[in-house]
Each structure stands twice: as structure tokens, then as C-alpha cells.
Amino acid sequence: MTDELRATLHRIADEATPLPVADDLWQRGRAARRRGQAFAVAAALALVVSVGGIATLTTTDREADTASTEKIEGGAIPSRIEDPGELELESDLAVGRASVAFFSAAGQPVVIGATDGRYHALDLPDLSPDRGPLVLSPDGRHLAWRSNGRIHSADLDDGTATYFPSSEEHAEVTDLRWVPNSSQLLWNGRNEEGEKTGGVLPVGDQAGRPLFPSALRGVPSPNGEVVALASGKTDAAPFLRRRGRRADRELPADLYPGGASIQPLGWAAEDLVVAQAFAGPGADVQGQHLVLFTSPDRPEQEWTYRVITRDVPQNAVPLSIAVDLIPDLDGTSSQQLTHDFGSESGAEEGQGELPYVLGGLVTLLAGLAYIRMLHKQA
Amino acid sequence: MITGDEAGFNAFVQARSAALSRTAYLLTGDHHLAQDLVQAALLQAAKHWGRIHTSPEAYVRRAIYHQNISWWRRRQITETQLVSHDRAVESSDTDLRLTLDQALARLTPKQRTVLVLRFYEDLTEVETARALGVSAGTVKSTSRHALRRLRTLAPELADLIGADA
């Protein structure tokens, strides 16, 4: 009987039309190999330099402030988010915790390393030609995207990727959002009949909490009681309470005399929304920028509104932010919510610390040669 | 300038990518994912070509099997919308190929992979076990469970699968 099964499997396989594979696989494979070797050499050199106790010789004052040498414990949102131009695609998705994700002007899915501020263009499997949503989990450890009805998720720590196949319920997915504890993905789309649908998917082994249906209309707060909604040009950011009751939170009129559009990105705390705002000419803060503000749950006298950063790519709408990286507010206006990773974040240079390590080694050798020369002269 | 290694790799891709794509399609049930699976495996092959160029197909096929399972299983994702995973597939189509295709989509990746290796690739239980890095007993039980599940999902396939499978 299994002969018939075998024959049917062959017929199914034979009817499949093989899609062409990329013609640069060899170059990409060899480039990946060279990178691996280069990093191995760099790691060995770095070890030599550090064991020799001359690491200080290789570190200039400028580097001390840059991503190349400084690791931010736990990670931080960069104070400047730049379009990196076209980068070499990385097929290894294990880039570690990320702070920001967006599509660059070159159409590449880019994430920024949370601890070092480096830019990585990722070779995501099954990436839709129309790009679509690219969403980073609040903890910065997972990245999700969609292609038609398929919903993909990658673990940035171990580089594994998995996906939900398209189903009757999500034959097409238009929007993806994470819930605050990074355990669930909310999706909106259309079913096979073309009707609007939405749902929630669990990610990994984490248990998600039940959500109210209103969660599908925006970004639910950590306790699920309030949902932050997107809006066009407005004077007040809209929210939805349970049972569909609307609540508004006024935007600062001094910053936006003509209003601003608001796209919520997540919740930094129980009552603190992170959003991408856009204001036109005449506003005190123009163009795209990231903001943080209290939800209407808080008494009005406790409301705060902070601009996280104005330096964001103006064509990346919207950015996706690991909102857990935003520090707890200390109540002072001088508190830094972001970190300056410097200009060596890989946006221009693209790859690696190898030049610095090599530079350090050259310095080391020059130093040894100088000492040897002095010794001979003596 | 094209090196001998690159020419060898290109020749292998040209000769075998269609066959690899067919296997990948059976494993995934999706053309685009099959293409991703094949490309990911070929990328790994290019990376390690110096070591595997004498028998690249075995390496690439193993990469495809493992990658397919890891894409699905490493994070143990299940979709909450599935009310009953073992509910019979509705099939108004009398074409067995379509029915089998639909039923295969409801198997776990491991079950599906074992069936493809055993009944499409014609590997023995021992060869399948070696390819997947599991024991022959696991292959045997997985294959038995997979066939039983196919019968549950699509009773009309009983003739195809065999009642005693």
C-alpha cells in the first residue's frame, strides 16, 4: 500500500514548479566564510592584545565613546537613528538583542544592536517584496515580519527563525504588533473570503495572558486595560478603554500648534506610551520623531511628554523600537533616555572591529620595535 | 574569474536544484519556503564547499531536513486558532494528490520529514535515522504515528496509506 503513497508523493513533488535560486549564492557563501575567518582572526588578535595588557594603546578617546569599544549593559536606544545606506546582507540572524528595526531607504530590513549600536541588514527568509511590517519585540530579542498570510518570527539571540503558515483566518496579513511582555504577536489582515480579521499568536514557550478584543485595534498596555491607537493629524492622542470607551490625551500645543499624527510603538511602563510622532511645518518639533508620554490613566497634573530623539530616518515609517530599553523616568527633565553610540556604529563602515584591532596590533609592534631600538642604543 | 570550486558549485546547483526543490516542497508544502530552504542549504554548502565538495548532495539534503525542522520546532510554536489539530481535513476535492497535500500540512514537521525521507527519498529507517540524527526506533514510531494521523485526518486516504500502517 505504501507504494501508492510513494507514487502519490512523487506526483505531488513533480507538479511543484521549482523556483529559481539566487545566482550569487557562491559569492554570499564565500563572503560569509571570509567574515567568519576574519572574525576568528580578530578575536585571536584581540585576545593577544588584551593579554599583553596594552589594550589602552589601541583605544583612543574617540573610540571610548563609540560603539566599537563600548558595550552598554542591557542595551539602549541610540540617540541618533540614521539610514545606513546599502549594507551587506547578513544571513546569520543571531545578531543579539536589538534596539531598533526598520526598512532602510535601500529596502533592507535593518536592526541596530542594543548594546553596541551597530547596524545589521538581515537576509530574512521569505521577505515579501512589498516589505510590509517589520516589528521588534519590546525586549528586543525577536523580530517579526510577514509575507502574504505567513507570519515569521526570528530569535535574534540564537538566529533561529520560524513561521506560522497562512491559514483560512490569515490569508493576508497587513499589520503586526507585539504585546508588552513580548510573548504574543497581534495581527490584523483578511481571511480567505477577504473579510477583515485579526488574532493573537503565541511566540516561543512564553505563556501569554488573555487579551480583550480591543487589543486588535492598537497597542495594548501591559495590564491590557488601555489600548493606544494610531491617529492622523490630531491635537490629542487617542486611547481605547475596556468596552470600547474612548479616551484622549492632549498633545502639547506649544510643540504642535497645528497638531501631530501619532503612531504608538509600545509601552515603556504601565502608563507610558512610546510613539512615533509626525508634525508639519510650523511645529516646534517637525518631521518624524520618537516621543514618550503618559496615558490618560494618570492624573493630568502628572502628565509628561518627552521627545526621545528627533534624529530618525524620515522615510522609515514607522520605526519599531525595543521599548523595554527605555529607562524608568527619574522625574527630571535632564534624564537621558537614549545613548550616544558615536558615529562608528557601522552605519557607514558597515563591518567589524577588525581595523581597530589591527591598528592596535600595529601600535603594539611599533612599540616593541621602539623599545628594542632603545635597548640596542643603550 | 571563476575558480574550479565555483564552477563545481554552479554545476551542482544547476544539476540538482530542481530535485532539491521538489524535496523541499514536499517538506514545506509552500513554494517560497521551499526556495528559502534550498537557498539556505546551498549557502551553507558554498560556505563549506572545500570540505564537502566530494559529496555535496548528502550535505545539502541533511541541511534541508534539519533546517526545516528547526524553522518549525526550535521555539515550539503552535497557533492558537487551531481548535482541533486532529480534525479531519475538509476535502471536496476528489483528487488524492490534493487531499494528501492538505493532510501532510497538518502533520508535525518531524512526522512530515520522516514520511518524505522514507517514502519519497526511499531511505531505510536506519538511513533516515542517520540523516535526522535520531534513533531508528524514533523513525519507526514517528513514521507509524504519522501514517496513523494521516488516516485520521483524511479517512479517504486509507487505501493509499494502508489500514495496517
TrEMBL record, chain A:
Domain of life: Bacteria
Keyword entries, A-Z: Membrane, Transmembrane, Transmembrane helix
Transmembrane region(s): 38-57
InterPro entries documented for this protein: 6-blade_b-propeller_TolB-like
Name of the protein in its database record: TolB family protein
Lineage: Bacteria, Bacillati, Actinomycetota, Actinomycetes, Propionibacteriales
UniProtKB/TrEMBL annotation, chain B:
Keyword Ligase recorded: no
Domain RNA polymerase sigma-70 region, first and last residues per copy: 15-76, 103-151
Keywords: DNA-binding, Sigma factor, Transcription, Transcription regulation
Keyword Transcription regulation in annotation: yes
Cited Gene3D superfamilies: 1.10.1740.10, Winged helix-like DNA-binding domain superfamily/Winged helix DNA-binding domain
InterPro entries found in the cross-reference section: RNA_pol_sigma-70-like (IPR039425), RNA_pol_sigma-70_dom (IPR014284), RNA_pol_sigma-E_actinobac (IPR014325), RNA_pol_sigma70_r2 (IPR007627), RNA_pol_sigma70_r4 (IPR007630), RNA_pol_sigma_r2 (IPR013325), RNA_pol_sigma_r3/r4-like (IPR013324), WH-like_DNA-bd_sf (IPR036388)
CDD domains noted in UniProt: Sigma70_r4
UniProt cross-references to Pfam families, sorted A to Z: Sigma70_r2, Sigma70_r4
NCBIfam families per the UniProt record, alphabetical: SigE-fam_strep (TIGR02983), sigma70-ECF (TIGR02937)
Family affiliation: Belongs to the sigma-70 factor family. ECF subfamily.
Protein name from the UniProt record: SigE family RNA polymerase sigma factor
